[in-house]
Design goal:
- This protein has about 375 residues and is mainly α.
- The protein has 2 domains: about 90 residues, Zincin-like; about 240 residues, no CATH class.
- About 55% of the residues lie in helices and about 5% in strands.
- The protein has 15 helices and 7 strands.
- Strands 1-2-4-3-7 form a 5-stranded mixed sheet, covered by helices on one side. Strands 5-6 form a two-stranded parallel sheet.
- The N terminus is likely disordered.
Length: about 375
Amino acid sequence: MSKILTSDKTLKKAFSNATKNTSKRISWGRKAQLVKCKGTKEECARIKDIAERLSKSDFAKNSLEIAYKAGYSISFAEGMEDTAGVCNPSTKSITLSANDSDEQNIATLAHELRHAVQFTNGMGARIDLHNIKTQIMMNRAMEADAESCAGISAWELKEKGDEKPWEIFSKESPLIANAIEEDLEKNNSSMNSENAKKSVLTKAFKAWYKNKNLRAAYEKNHVDNLLFLKEKELLGRLPLNQNIDPEDIINGICVLPNGEKYFKDDAKLISSRNYLSVNLSTHTSFKKIMQERFTLYGLEPDKTIDELPVTRPTVSYNKLPSNKKTSENIQKKQSSVFLSSISLKERQEQSASIIKMKRLTKIIKSKIVSSNFSAR
């Protein structure tokens, strides 16, 4: 079981062991030989090629090294049409979709590797022990951080001549990509300095929260996870009473490879209404599950649910298209008033997030998933 980090002293100790640069760096050579692979010879060769390309990003290279030292393996799985990748701290494994292209898997691997770093630092591996409010704050911060780091990695590859991963990332996460481009242009800088990375990552992290449809997808997945635990008669074993303050969540997740915190704003931002609110259907489901937990096991409902701000969703995840639609077809199903009020970038993000939403609604049923995992 991973240690839950609740103090600055504990955090600093974890960072010194996991994220600080060491004097002896891993030598990658031509083919990223130190990536731990599982699968056929051909699959392992493909994984090493993807890792080799990704290692050209200094940011991603650090994540590759930490994951390798922590014992994480990387493998492919067929039939992962409903998710791009999964990082499972229980089995120390990262699974990529064999059906996605190498360029798609580069950003996915960067995302999942960042989750491996988070788990190695003691964040989120046993997120199910915490109260619902803490779970929401931590899960969103982990996803915002992982996707932002994937964006930074893709940008660094672009700067070194490998442009395709950034092109794909920009289509899948346009709000974050736009935040990265705008911040670099505004400050007339590249990603070479630590201050530039801090500024860009802060903007990208905050941009993740603007995608209400993607947030709804993770909320749905959160509810499904609780229902899964209920079905397996495990819900009564979870205390759901541990709390982590926003400051400790940010200090434990938003970390540069040198161990410094990159988030430049007040950490309490993630507990504010715009960052913490959940859809009415999510809030209702949480309340219902907690009442059933009380009825079955006599455990008091989690009172932090009442502290979650409630909003009405702009799109219902219960009425999703059965197939992956094109951006144009998905947009036609939305309100014309709503569509006229958002930018092209936001429309692209909405379309991409609906596809991700479809992926996440089924992932809990996958055999490769435990109750503690992170998926893209």
